[in-house]
Write a structure and sequence with these properties.
about 15% strand, 5-stranded mixed sheet, Aminopeptidase, alpha/beta, about 210 residues
């Protein structure tokens, strides 16, 4: 891998495509179902999923297939599949639902009004976990651009993680034959101590809600 080419490509996609789309995503009040009893009728989760799906369609990744999967009475799920040059399957996971606003925010900031300050994007859901679909596909696209081999990639983006993922098991069961048996699972929903090195979280446990 050419590190400079990779960084240049990622920076370009971030500035020209991801950042503007994340701005639009932050504006959507798609709060997780546990905190929004009207989620099934107000359309905010569907709006967020459509925004992400439209962005996915705009990417030039050979063989990419995408579907918005819907099970009766459950939040939607974005399913993306990209063929690879080996039989191994890499499963990448993220979510689009958001925590409630938790007001007040700092002066000049608002949960649903995106602001870039000192190179950082502020707004509800941008880091937790709206970036996941953009980050996963951009990484795969960067490999494709340099002709580097990778395994078959399956990307799953759910919409009820902040509620404890009550719908995820049903979707995993529904899609198990299409997903197959992953060799590696990457959860794009954790934290980092800085931006100068690579951070990996190996386990998380428990959920507190009040």
């Amino acid at each position: 891998m050419d590190a400079k080419k990779t960084q240049s490509f990622i920076d370009s996609v971030w500035d020209e495509s991801i950042l503007p789309t994340l701005h639009e995503y932050i504006k959507i009040p798609n709060v997780s179902p546990l905190f929004d009893k009207e989620w099934a009728t107000n359309g905010f989760l569907d709006q967020a999923v459509k925004l992400a799906a439209d962005w996915v369609r705009s990417r030039n990744i050979p063989g990419l297939e995408m579907e918005i999967v819907r099970l009766e009475g459950r939040t939607p799920l974005l399913y993306i599949e990209i063929p690879g040059k080996s039989d191994e399957t890499i499963l990448l996971y993220g979510h689009l639902d958001k925590q409630p606003p938790m007001l007040p925010w700092a002066d000049g900031l608002d949960p649903y009004k995106p602001v870039v300050r000192d190179g950082k994007l502020y707004g509800r859901g941008g880091a937790d976990d709206g970036y996941a679909v953009f980050g996963s596909l951009t990484a795969i696209e960067a490999l494709e651009k340099q002709g580097l081999p990778h395994g078959r990639c399956v990307v799953i983006i759910e919409c009820c993680e902040e509620s404890g993922s009550p719908d995820l098991p049903a979707y995993i069961d529904h899609l198990k034959d299409r997903i197959g048996t992953p060799s590696l699972v990457v959860c794009l929903d954790s934290g980092c101590g800085n931006y100068d090195q690579f951070w990996v979280t190996t386990s998380l446990r428990g959920m507190i809600s009040g």
